[in-house]
Every structure is written in C-alpha cells, then in structure tokens.
Design a protein that fits this description.
Layout: E1 3-5, E2 31-35, E3 72-75, H1 84-88, E4 109-110, E5 113-114, E6 124-125, H2 154-161, H3 164-176, H4 183-204, E7 252-253, H5 254-261, H6 266-278, E8 282-286, E9 292-296, H7 298-307, H8 309-324, H9 340-350, H10 354-361, H11 364-374, H12 376-392, H13 408-431, H14 438-444, H15 447-451, H16 456-472, E10 479-480, E11 495-500, E12 506-511, E13 517-522, E14 526-531, E15 536-543, E16 547-552, E17 558-563, E18 568-572, E19 578-582, E20 589-594, E21 600-605, E22 609-614, E23 620-625, E24 637-642, E25 648-653, E26 657-662, E27 668-674, E28 680-685, E29 691-696, E30 700-705, E31 710-716, E32 722-727, E33 733-738, E34 743-747, E35 753-757, E36 765-770, E37 776-781, E38 786-790, E39 796-800, E40 807-812, E41 818-823, E42 827-832, E43 848-853, E44 860-864, E45 868-873, E46 878-884, E47 890-895, E48 901-906, E49 911-915, H17 917-946, H18 975-978, H19 1000-1014, H20 1066-1069, H21 1078-1085, H22 1099-1110, E50 1117-1121, E51 1129-1134, E52 1140-1145, E53 1150-1154, E54 1159-1165, E55 1180-1185, E56 1191-1196, E57 1201-1205, E58 1210-1215, ...
Parallel strand pairs: 2-62, 6-8, 10-70
Antiparallel strand pairs: 1-2, 3-15, 4-5, 7-9, 8-9, 11-42, 12-13, 13-14, 14-15, 16-17, 17-18, 18-19, 20-21, 21-22, 22-23, 24-25, 25-26, 26-27, 28-29, 29-30, 30-31, 32-33, 33-34, 34-35, 36-37, 37-38, 38-39, 40-41, 41-42, 43-44, 44-45, 45-46, 47-48, 48-49, 49-50, 51-52, 52-53, 53-54, 55-56, 56-57, ...
Helix pairs in contact: 2-3, 3-4, 5-6, 8-9, 9-12, 10-12, 11-12, 12-13, 13-14, 16-21, 17-21, 17-22
Pfam family, one: WD40
Keywords: Repeat, WD repeat
GO cellular component, one term: transcription factor TFIID complex
Amino acid sequence: MGCNQSAPRGGEGPGTIGNAETATGLGTTPIRISFNGKQSASLAPKAAVRDSVQDIGEKSAPKGDNNGKGHGSISSKDGSERTSASKHANTDTRAAQGPHGSSSNLPAAGNGASAPNTASASHTTSPQPPKAGSMDIHSNRSSFAAEGIPAGSKLAVARASGSARRSVEDVGAGAVGGGRLPPALEAARSSQQARLSSIQAADVMGVGGEKPAGVPARPHVAAFDPLPGYSPPAPLAAHYPLLGALPPDTPVPMDVLARLWRAGQPAEALEVARGLAAAGVLRLAALDDGSQWALPSPQHVAHAAAAWPGVVVAVHGQILDSYCKGGAVALDSLRDDGYIIQALSHHLVGCGRLEALRRLLMNPGWLEAKLHAYGVGAVVRDFRRYLQDAEADAAPSGPGNGSPTSGGSSAAGEVKLLLQAFQLSLGAAMEHPTARMMREQMLARLMAVAAGGRLKEWYDEQTAKCAAEGMLAVNSRLLHLMPRSPSLAQAGGVQRMTLRGHTAPVTRVAIAPNCIEVVTISEDGTAQVWDMNIGDCVMQLARDAPLTAVGLTPDSASAVVAAADGTAAVWSLATGQVTHTLSGHTAKINALAIDKQGIRVVTASDDHTARVWNLADGSCEAVLQGHGGNAGVQGAVLDVAVCADGTLAATVSDDFSCRVWDLDEDGEELQVLEGHGGWVVSAAFVGTTHRLVTASHDCTARIWNAHKGRLLFVLSGHTGRLNRVSVDPGGSWAVTASDDGSARVWDCETGQLKQVLEGAHNAHVTDAAITRDCSKVISVAGDGSGAVWDLASGRREALLEGHTGEVRAVVLTQRGRFAVTAGEDGTARVWDLAAEALVAPPCHSGRVTALSTLPDGQLVVSAGEDGCVFLWDPVEGVCLKRMAGHQVGVRFMRVSADGALVLTGSGDRQISRWNWGEYSAAASVAGHRRSMERRELILHTLHTATGSAGSRSLAGLTAGGTSVGQPGSELGMGLGDRATNSTIATTPGGGRTPGTGRNSEEDTLAALEDSCRDGDSGPPPSVPNTASGGTPRVAAAEPAGASAATAPATADSLPVLGSPPVSTPASALGVGMGHSGLGAAALAAAGGTPPLLPLAATAAARATLLDLCAGVTADPLRASMPAQQGSRVKHMAFDAACTTAAVLLFDSTVSVWDVTSGRCTAQLIKRGERDASRTHSGGVNAVYLMRDARTAVTISKDQTARIWDVPTASTRFVVEGHTDGLVAADISADEALLATAAYDKTVRVTRMATGAAVAVLDHPQPPTAVSFSPNCHHMAVALEDHSVVVWDLVGRCCLPALDAHKAALSVLTWSPDSRFLLTAGADCTARLWRAEDGRQQAFFMADSAITAACFAGAPVADIVVAGDSAGAVHFLDWAEELQG
C-alpha cells in the first residue's frame, strides 16, 4: 500500500493507532511506518503549470543557449521534442506563408500555367532534417498533444518517436492480448490515428504551425480571383472546379478526395491527384503509416471558387451529405478522419447551413473534444466563420436554413456569448485535458446571462445534461463540480480572457500595433506571445534570468525583451528566432523604449547607464553616462522614453534627476533636468512634441521643455509617492498613479488638474493609461483591482476584478477597446472596455481567510482580509448578512458546538463574538419547506425524464459515445462520439433529421429508464440537481399542496442585508440559478414551470428565507475584545463553547482569555521565557485548545510539542523525538491522539492522555499540514511538494500519494462522514478524494487561488464551499448521487 513498517507491531491487532482503547497494548515503543516513495513516482517535483496544449505526454526540454548566443532558447510552450516530421517546419508559419496564407514552397501560378517543383510524377514530399542552427519552434495549435491523450500513453510516446502506426497497433494488441479489438476501441484507434496523420501531414507540408488569426474569406463567396483566365488541363477539367470547396492550408486525405470526385476507390483519386500535382495545382505527401495526403494550392482553390461559385456551393453540401449518410449520422457524431472535423465549419458556411453550425457551436462537449484534438485556434475559427456570415446576414434567416424565427443578429449575439464563455474557460480546460469539464465551466460563466433571459432554454438543457451525466458516470470518470451562483468570471462582462502560463509574477505586458499579438514577460524567465483573438499562447522565449522589460517594434515584427542579468534579446515574432542579443550592461535592465521608426532601442539599467542599440544589427551605438555623478552611490536609471521623431531620449534616475540625450549626435547629453526632491521613477513624452512629463517619489510630477531644459509646470496634489505617469497618444492629457490610492488626470497644455480618480482602490495605484480617444482612464493597483473611469466626469464606470495580488501594469490596444493587465498572480487578463459591466455577487474585498458551516449545515459563515464576516445560504449561494467586525483582516474563526456562537480573531488581537442562533432558526424553517418542495420536484423530474425518451434528448454519456458499461467509453471512438449531446441538422435545408440508429443520448435515456424500472418495487432513484439545494432523496408522497412550481429560487435581486440597496436589475446579477439539474430539461419538456423561473414568478418563493432573516432585529455581534498595541497575533485557538481563546503572539507569549469578560485567565508562556524545564526554548509556531479549554497544545521550533494544563499553566507532557522544528499539528475528534508534523519529514502520533508515542510516520518531503478524519480512522498529511499522503490508522498503511495539485496547498479538510478528503490550493483547484482508495472523485477550478473551504448541507453534506484569494465564495453542488 505504499508504506513500509520499520518496527514490529508488538502483536497488536488492527485499530491500535486509531483507537485509544486498543492502543494501550502498544507499550512505549512507537510503530515507525515509512511512505514508500517507489510506489508513487508522483512525489517527484512537478513541472511548472502550463496553459499550453503541448503539456500532455511530452517532456520539457531544459533551457539552453540559442545558437551559441548564450542567453536564451526558443521552444514551444513546454519546450517539448518534436518528431522529424514536425521539425521539417521549424519556424513559425507566418514566415512560410505567402500574402494569402499560401505556403512559400507551393508552385507559383501565373499566366494561366503553373510549373511543378520537381519532375516527380507524384510530387511526394518527404520529411527533411532541420537546418543547422534552426530553432525548434512551432505553434501550440498544431500539437498532437492537444488531443487530450493521457500523459504516458503509448500514442503520445509514439509521436515523439515518429512511429504512430506501430504505437496504435501496440495499444490494440495490449488491450485485447493480441486479438481483434472491440468495435468501439477499433473506432477510437482509427480516429486517433487519423488525427496523428493529419498533424503529421500538416507538418510535412509546411502548414503545421499557426494559421492566420483573421477570419478567412467566406467559403461560398470568393473575395478575389488570383488566377484570372487560368484553365486546368483538359483531362482534369471535371475535377478541378471541385477543389474550390476545400479549405485553404488544410491537408486532405485521399479518401476525402475520393468522396469529392466520387471516385470508386482511393487509388482512382490518387491518379487524379497525381495529375493535378504534375500541373502544380496541389502537392502530395506519403506518410510513414502508408496514407496519402494532398494540399491544394490556395491560389487554385480561390480561383476555382471564383470561377465556379454555384458548383462549389453544391459540392460543400455533397461533402457533408456523404459524411452524414443522408442525415443518419448527426454532425456532432461524425467520426474524425483527420479532415472533416477541421473543415466542418468551412463546409457548413459554404453551403449556407448556418443554423447547423450554430447548433454545433452550442455543444460544449463537441467544442471541448475539438479543442483537445486540434487546439484553440481551430475552435475559435469555427466561431468566427459563423459570426462573419451571421452578422453579414443580420436579417432573420430564411426557412431554407431551417433557422428559428429569431433574427440572425440575436443568434449571433448568443454565439458571441458562448465564444466568450469558451475563452474564459480555456485556462481550466487546457490544464485538465483529460477531464471533461468544458460544459460545466461554460455554464458557470453564463449564469448571469441566463438569469437575464438570454440563452435560457439552452442553459436549462445543458444543466440537465450535466446532472444526468454526473449521475450515470459517477464512478467512471472525474467530475467537475458546478457552482450554484455566478462566482466565476461571467461571459458578457468586462473580463474576456485570462492568459495563464507563467509560473511567477507577470512583470510587464506589451500589445503589438497590429493588435493581434500580446507579449507577456515574467519573473520565471519566460516571454510568451499570445494571440489576442483566441487567447492561446503561440510562442515562448526562455531566458536564464527574470525578465524586466519588453517592447514591440512599430511593424509588429519583433519584440525586445530585457532581463535582470543585464542582457536583452531581439526576438523575431515571424520566425521565432532570437536575431540579436544585446550585451553590455553590467546590472539589471529596468526599462527600454523603442523609437516609433523602429530603428533604435534604448535600455536603462541599474549600472547607472543607458545604452542605444541599432535594431538592424544589434550594435551598441552609444552609452549614455552621467547619472550618479562621481559619488556613484545613486544613479540607477529607472526609466527611459524616446520622443515621437526619435531624436531625443530622456532617462530618469534615483539621483533625483532626468537627463535628455540627443540620439542623432551619438547620445550627446543635452540637458539635466533637476528640481525633484526624490527618486524620479517614470517619464513620458507628450504627443509629437518635445515636452516631457516626469513623475517622482516627492509626490509631484513636472512638465518640461526637454530640448531647452526649461520647467513648465509642477503637478502637485498627490499625498503619496508617484509610481507611474502616462500620456494619451494625442498628447492632451497625462495621468499619474500614486501610493495615495488615487490617479490624477492633468491637462498637458496648461498643467491644470482635470480629475481626481479615487475610491476604487484600497492600495497604491501602480499604473494607469488613457485611451486614444481620451474618453476613458484605466487604473490598476496593488490590491489586485483595476478601474475604468470616464475622463470627462471622473465617474467610475467599471471595476476590473479577478487578479489576486498586485497588478503591475496595464496597456491598451490602439483603438482603446481592450485593456491587458499584468498581475503578480502569474496571469495576464484581457478586458473589454466597451462591454457592459455586470453586477457581481457579494464577495470579500481581498482573500477569503476562513469558512465554517453551522452545525445544522444550512448556513455558512465566511471571513476575509477585509475584516468582514458574511452569512450565506449555501443552497442558493446567496449572501444573507454582511457585517464589518474587524479593522484588519480576520484570520481565525470557530463555530461553537451548538451553532449559536462564532468567534473571529484578527492579527491586532481583536476577538469578536457573534450570535447567529436566530438566523439558524430561520434557516431551519425555510430548509424544511425547501426539502419538501424539492422532493416533489425530484418525483416530477423522474416521471418526466423517463416518459420523454422520444421527444427530448438528455445527455451524451461517455467519451466514446457508448452507453455506460460498453467497452471503449473512456477512449472515444471519434471526435464527435466523444461528446454527442444533440442531433444537429444535416439536410440541405438545415432541418433536424431523425437518425436511423440509436445515438448516445438515447443510451442515456435508456439508462435512466432502466434505473427507474429497476426501482419500480421501491422508491425511484433520486436525481442530482445542480444548483439547487437539499439532498435529493425520495420519500413518501407529498401533500397535494406541495408543487414543483414553488421551488425556491435565488435572492439575487434583493439587496444584501446590512448593506445599501442595489438599483441594478436582478437579472443582471444572476445569483443562484434555482433548480438547474436534470429536472430543468424534464420540466421544460413537460410544459411545467422552468427551473430558471422569472424573477417576478419566484418573488414569493425566494423572499421567504430573506424575510425570515430580515426579521431578526438583534445585532449578531454580541461582544468584542478590542484590538491591542504591541506584538501581533501569530496564531489563535478557541474552545468548543466559543467562550475561551488561546492567543499566541509573534514574541512567543501564549495566553488564555475569557472572551466574554475580556480577562486573561492563564499565561502559559510569558514574554522572553525560555526555561526549557518549564517551557519551550525556541519560538512557538502554533497553539491548539481542546473542547473544554482545560488542555492546550503548543508546537515549537525547539523540536518539541507541549501539552498544557490550562488552569495551572503547567506542562503535562512534552512530545519529543522530532529532529527539526514543528510546523503543524492536529488533535483527533475524540481528543485521544495528537499528530505533530516537523521539517524532519516525519509525523508523530501521540496519546493526549499519557503523552506516549504511538507511531512515527516517515515521508519523502517535509509535511506542511496534518488533519485527522472525523472518525479517527484516517489522517491526511500535506507535503511541501504539493502532494498529500493519506494514512489508514486502523490498517497501519497508507494510500498512494495524491499528487494532482501543482501548487502549495491551503486546504486539507474531511467531509463530516469521513468518506472524502477535500484539498485545495494556489493552483486554483479544489479536489475531492475518496478515503477508501485515494481515487479522485471530483474537482473544481476557480479563477483564483483557493484559500479556504468547507462542507455544507443537511442532512447530508452535499455542498462544497470554497473561498478564493479574490474574495469570491463558490458554492459547489456535491449531490449525494455524485458521491458514489
């Protein structure tokens, strides 16, 4: 079981560790058990978290020199090795493409003729070795690893070895012992092989890299004819026009050409293809698996589409019909042959079936499968193809398309929302490529939209599918939990994308002038290029030092990246090559500036110099020396700016000065601008003039005539030091960002103050920017927030929330539509400044520090860094009460055993006592009625679901499109089969055509029918209801008055009690989606009340609980021990009655207090006391208090723990044996055992009653936290490498390491029934593990690091509550049926 015992048990039987009564037979010799690291190799340090599609099954390459330059290496996002075929295309595709996206290796066509490249009849292209010195760079979006095949699988290894065919055969042989595979597995193998071949063909033909981000021309309308007058050879005249239906830059397998030309056999199509290849119309490639692929020339494709438009439109439809077999196969069930899934949207748009494409794009399962098969770009291009045509045809679609009566613009708006939800969900989906979670993530980000009435029917149907899939696949795959309120970033709001990939703070961000590429740099030593249109990382540069500055040339062709080691690199964004390394500085480079002509770059360094470099050859033209003078104590150059005409540069320094240099005269010093009384930290030229604005730590900014050295204006008014100054592109306004929490806008012409922008940030403002049209100002701050301001009025228009930690920079696109922010949390975020800001649900202003459930499970209390305490209804995710009880952040909290009292403590020694008893009574009344209503809803849901098999589809169950229990359900037969969810129109008219065979949704219904039929003799099975409360049980028949129509909904429209009312319509908030599980689609199909009820219809139902709580007039804050001066609190502990507190200060004093009277009842350790005979001889790290407050435990750096008798303030026992400082401890629920964890990699288990050692548990890494299960049968230990070891204390063994987390853990807690362990941490995930076998049952990924979590719900804990570092509280549906 992964552990070794190093000491005999002494004859004791099972249970000696976990049971205090039977443990007495152990004597004085503890058992020593070691975790067997060999069994779980996952305990090795994990690789950095990447948001790349290439992280699956491929090994990261170490950083190395770049062609001998010694300062960096170019790699794909994870630096993975590529096959020989991929290395053939070793540069970014943009360098290999012509002006219209064609490959530069394609034969040219002109004057009506085209010459082939070689004399070969077949023109077969074979892989070529990489050129010497070439860089291994390719796009993530063509990576085989995007398929989502589990790491370590033979298929993934096969691509690395270049032998995919043999690998697939090996998988088949291994699966059935050398025999024939079952049909499902055979289909899965065939689809995976086809995708392998497609990607290899693209690489061989030079189109395996990134495709253009823009939308291609509408397939059925040629934008131009590149070959006017060209006529194909007479024998091929009948075949040539049909090529106009093929998508450009997409390899086509020979069997597709056989469909296109209606050839009887692929061999016949091959002969035709060879003839076209000889004419230069296409190229052929033979792969190592024996398959033949063709790549038509984009020029010839465009010519055929322009010359024969009617034929091409018909061919689009014929291709689709051949795949769909006349409508017998749904579009989302098509098997992937390496071509059709990539080209499906192209053909649908080409024949005008926009409604069919819309339905396909509204299938999250299909989107997820294509994402992991072909990457982000392929999916986003499908959305754009639809939107381009739908917006062009804004009028209502005609009946020929089988469209609904809604107008095209409305449908396009819904698809835009889905695209935004998809892009917001990308980070989570890409980090978990083997987990099916896209539907849940998208639904969680569309809650506010659905609450407002948009996409409502779709939302109800999809949530029903989530519920059905979760119930039927609970033990077959990992589940993603659904939040009950819109706690994740919402589509339709300001935030558009989160760019995840860096493993350290993002220091700077730059947007290319073409507004397509975004370059982020980080302290992790990497620079990443992101495609703004799709949110995907397309290129990465790895350096040997943290990166500090970045700039982009005016033509968007190159980026200059500077590092802390004093070097900079000129990086070609077209080829991925480092073209020049700029070496010369002897200290960190702080800033750089590129002139608007793209000729020079100026770098500013801590070595007291700035240097001027020629971008063409990388030579140093001048060294700008002068800062610091002769003393040399100060003089670090902190920022640099270059004027619009490129003639002047200005550098600012910590020597309180700014210096102006003439770049045309070899860097001659023109002026020294003195007058500031502190460090000058930022500079910016004004428009196209030589005016210069400088910002200083002396709380002022100054406007100068840089050429003449004359001071024009002093901009005073800030009360804190200035961090940044920015000027709008036109030179009208300057904005300064200050430590005083405000930004100020100044008139550059007069020096007058225009606006004071304050009230949005609770920390220093780090950066600010003004849009090109001077209508908006965007500011960012150290508290992780950003704000959008109206420049004319100074009014705040939107708050940009999502970052955790300081936001270090903000940049704007040229038109000012989008802003990109760089955060200390390792992410960059894209914000749509034109979007309407949604009203966010209540949340803490800062990290959630504590979460606790009242004993009845019907109320949850949260505390945060903002000093506030929130009371929540976990069923609906609604905040019932908000109280400000502390001046500083709350760090400690405990709920009393009877649930009436809650104690909270903060670092300033304040302890507040809250009484929630009356609120608990109100929740109990509402909870009883809610459970009655829900049971009725469940009965109605089951009856409706089992009776509507022929009229409404519910869900696609498995990855293979097969029913539960069939072979191959985990591998998947093909792309569409992986997530079949609905029948999509495939007829020319776009109407729904019934299939002749049973699809996966009918299998789902059959499973539901069977489960209900099996339960005919007893109560029907309950059905999980995501986003609705209570435990889904079925009991006796309910009274006639109980109706599903009165199911409770949310209280999002009402103001939070204790806070000012909100005037925003409730539909904009969307908190709590009511009953949105399986009953959603079932009730809608039956004509019943939909689960997402209109706000007016549910006012009475939702107001009940709030009215009951509002009727409580007593202030819950009953007493408070005031804050005290002196040493701050290091740790606190409270007793079960919440009347006593043990307080540990940073000076290691430990005291016990009566909270009611505020009196100190015992002083366990006095200040400065270090007598080892009575107390600890080293610093104390934590204190723990038993339920009756008569016993306390302290752990210390002196390698011991002490068990104290509180009334006498004396030590009862000393726990010895550790060889390093103690870091954590826990007391079992029965208070019989104490577990202490130390840096010596051990956890010692000790009897509280006698102080005798019970066991010593060894680990491969130092532990950071330890937690007993409530039944005392298990103990979880979190380790420094982010893994968790679960010990079976009864069986004296351990489970294999739980190693799914990729960052430090902050949560280690057990479910009340001890069946599940909940872990969560800085990787933004919460994970639920089964205690019996360590299998991961479910998980949830938030937008920010999860900092606190607990279980809620009654009578069974069916809700997981998680708080994150951004202040959001997530209520996750953990229905009993999902628990297995």
